[in-house]
TrEMBL record:
PANTHER family to which the protein is assigned, alphabetical: CYTOKININ RIBOSIDE 5'-MONOPHOSPHATE PHOSPHORIBOHYDROLASE, LYSINE DECARBOXYLASE-LIKE PROTEIN
Stored InterPro entries: CHP00725 (IPR005268), LDcluster4 (IPR041164), LOG_family_nucleotidases (IPR052341)
GO cellular component, one term: cytosol
Annotated organism of origin: uncultured Aureispira sp
Ranges annotated as spanning the membrane: none
Protein name per UniProt: TIGR00725 family protein
NCBIfam families associated with the record: TIGR00725 family protein
Length: 169
């Protein structure tokens, strides 16, 4: 049963307006399903998802968890309800992945790629958004190697993401 979803994607430096807007819509849709949302807790797409969750009229306080790569809590985006300052740099990507029952990837560069690879190693399904570029689009529907299959699912809209989530629950 899906209760916690890790959402991964670009930080502020690579987050386009279109990706940010999608993040707000996605966050609100996840909050409507009463899911706990986990991200890397920084700006960009991660902030947008949490911002959207907070916009839901029946938002449940404590539903957004940010796992930071550094120790300074004040560097978290303002929509993090729970801030976990890891101090372990990029290794925190493994924590973001392992905390979710399932992942949603939108766009993304090297950090998102590492999280998708961790998800693959941990046998976790990743809903890869197709339509806004990045690693999520490049890997949507593919297998990373021949040892596993059907872990990287493809979705090209928020309703498609929600349909997959509903079928996983």
């Amino acid at each position: 049963m899906i209760k916690q979803v890790s959402v991964i994607g670009p930080n502020k430096s690579a987050c386009t307006d279109e990706i940010y807007s999608l993040g707000i819509q996605l966050g609100q849709a996840l909050a409507q399903r009463d899911l706990t949302i986990i991200t890397g807790g920084m700006e960009g797409f991660m902030e947008a998802v949490f911002k959207g969750a907070h916009r839901y009229e029946n938002y449940r306080k404590g539903s957004t968890i940010g796992i930071l790569p550094f120790l300074e809590k004040e560097r978290a985006n303002p929509y993090c309800d729970v801030i976990i300052p890891s101090g372990i740099g990029f290794a925190r990507n493994q924590l973001v992945v392992s905390a979710g029952d399932l992942l949603i990837a939108v766009g993304g560069g090297a950090g998102t790629l590492s999280e998708i690879a961790f998800a693959w190693q941990f046998n976790k399904r990743v809903i890869c958004y197709k339509g806004l570029g990045g690693w999520s689009e490049k890997l949507a529907g593919l297998d990373l190697d021949n040892r596993k299959s059907n872990l990287l699912l493809e979705a090209n809209s928020i309703p498609a993401i929600l349909n997959i989530l509903d079928n996983e629950r």
